[in-house]
Amino acid sequence: MAKALVIFLHGVGSNGEDLAALGRHWAPLLPDVIFAAPDAPFSFPHGAGFEWFSLDGVTPENRPARVRAARETFDATLKAILARHGLSDQWDKVVLVGFSQGSIMALDALASGRFPLAGAVAFSGRLAFDEPLSPAIQTPALLIHGHADAVIPWRESESAAQRLKAAGVPLELQLEPRTEHTISAQGAMRAAAFIAQCLQD
Fold this sequence. Notes:
globular; six-stranded parallel β-sheet
């Protein structure tokens, strides 16, 4: 049985395979780790791919409610993956790695403290959370965002980092001057090293 599980959470309009390639790249760096890259539960209505929650008519005001409404299907997706790999309820062996909308879901899971995760990585994300933060404070997080991101402003990760740190989360923020709305090579390598550190125990 693998000692740990990394679950990739893709962005809106994408699919699990989009991030599964990153797992194949990381595999030599993270031995004995299983990589899972599920499709989000809802079909994206404006093309191929999937979404964790709808962006139609989304605003800064209603986004947190949409994320809350998505928790049931999101949590069920994660629990099914853990069960499939014989790791049911062993959240301390799980690292979530999200991109864009997937990062929103990962940071929501972290901020709500629903799972005592081994770690969380959020690329190009935001913390869409309007409740009091109640994280599992032993769960470290790495937020990576590019200054050139024209989809989700980098200040969203800066704000999320401030809020999560204030709530007691051990957190690292990496801002990349020229990176757009994507995962850079340096960001991917930093995340792999962070995950290895999270799982070293």
